[in-house]
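Students often ask why inverse folding is considered easier than folding. One informal answer: many sequences map to the same fold, so there is more than one right answer. In these notes we will look at a single instance of the problem. The structure comes first.
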């Protein structure tokens, strides 16, 4: 899967054609207002390219998880308004509970070259998440060329990410997709070495296959965050009230052994920041103290990596040529417990290596802490980037034509 051998928007002629672009406009909304438009901004280069090439640009996306069909709070109307502002031209919103009902068909039929229409939330159709043929056919009916540019949804085989390609032969990936596959694909398949992978986050279970695959691929694997305590337990340490997945202790033992057998360095925290309980509210004041990992008090829980571990992890990153990071080192939403995550972000910001941030919490942390412009690539897809790091083929990538 190294690099990208897919047809891209640079390879296709869209003049006068109806181009359906699957975007990721799953943006956070508060009282009908968009609170973070990163995903919309990320889609602009592809949209502008298709407008400039004279395509009739039809955009589609899901937003949230509407359970009972169409609901106003999940409508893409605010996205159309924001897109119009960002593009400096009207984006016609085809409000239509059927998504591709009469209103949408009318909007598409009256398009001129270079016009932009946004369809309603694809999940207003029950068939979408089941990848059922009826909705795929409806989408194909208003489409000449399909462009996939929603990396955040590429790990799902839905009508608008994969099913439609059964009925449309001209397909391509957009610029965002191209960039994601280039960075993540190259990092995992043909990394410049030394290759260091950093995994954090709460649960070992979420990252089982990633851990195993990365031990095969990387030179050093660093494990922090809540999942580190299950590894410590596997090494025989007592971890007090810290988060432990008892069912995965054996698995962690296997991974420690696998790393040793393959001659890979697997780094775990040497000290930890502990408190009496989880902060409530999450960003509220909390009393903390740091201690070595083999001296965690029975009544305390570990909530971040300690100062010695911060140095150890930062040192490991210094000589790297490629670094992939997925998951925070502690409860970064709390200022007292964000220090480990800040230290890792800082180490990545200061290295000359290619630095790739897997989406989700680590992306949020890097952006929130002000290090975004120092990273080579911040992925827009949490689940999708994890599956990519597992070495899986993503359905939304597989269905696009190869060059």
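Output (designed amino acids):
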């Amino acid at each position: 899967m190294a690099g990208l051998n897919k047809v891209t928007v640079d390879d296709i002629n869209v003049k006068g054609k109806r181009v359906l672009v699957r975007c990721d406009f799953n943006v956070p909304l508060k009282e009908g207002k968009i609170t973070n438009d990163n995903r919309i901004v990320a889609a602009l280069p592809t949209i502008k390219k298709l407008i400039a090439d004279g395509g009739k640009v039809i955009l589609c996306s899901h937003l949230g998880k509407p359970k009972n069909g169409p609901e106003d709070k999940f409508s893409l109307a605010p996205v159309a308004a924001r897109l119009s502002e960002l593009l400096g031209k009207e984006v016609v919103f085809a409000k239509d509970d059927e998504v591709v009902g009469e209103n949408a068909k009318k909007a598409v039929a009256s398009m001129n070259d270079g016009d932009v229409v946004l369809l309603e939330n694809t999940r207003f159709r029950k068939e979408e998440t089941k990848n059922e043929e009826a909705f795929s056919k409806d989408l194909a009916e208003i489409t000449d060329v399909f462009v996939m540019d929603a990396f955040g949804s590429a790990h799902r085989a839905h009508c608008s990410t994969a099913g439609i390609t059964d009925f449309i032969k001209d397909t391509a990936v957009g610029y965002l997709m191209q960039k994601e596959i280039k960075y993540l694909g190259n990092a995992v398949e043909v990394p410049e070495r030394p290759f260091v992978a950093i995994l954090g986050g709460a649960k070992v279970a979420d990252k089982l296959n990633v851990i195993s695959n990365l031990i095969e691929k990387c030179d050093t694997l660093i494990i922090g965050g809540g999942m580190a305590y299950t590894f410590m337990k596997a090494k025989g340490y007592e971890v007090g009230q810290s988060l432990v997945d008892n069912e995965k202790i054996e698995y962690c033992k296997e991974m420690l052994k696998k790393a040793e057998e393959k001659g890979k360095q697997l780094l775990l925290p040497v000290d930890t920041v502990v408190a009496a309980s989880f902060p409530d509210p999450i960003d509220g004041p909390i009393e903390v103290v740091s201690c070595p990992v083999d001296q965690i008090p029975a009544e305390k829980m570990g909530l971040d990596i300690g100062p010695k571990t911060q140095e150890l992890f930062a040192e490991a990153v210094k000589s790297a040529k490629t670094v992939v990071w997925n998951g925070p080192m502690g409860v970064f939403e709390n200022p007292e417990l964000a220090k480990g995550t800040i230290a890792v972000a800082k180490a990545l910001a200061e290295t000359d290596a290619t630095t790739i941030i897997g989406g989700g919490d680590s992306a949020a942390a890097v952006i929130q802490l002000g290090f975004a412009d120092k990273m080579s690539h911040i992925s827009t897809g949490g689940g999708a980037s994890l599956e990519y790091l597992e070495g899986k083929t993503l359905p939304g990538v597989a269905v696009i034509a190869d060059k």
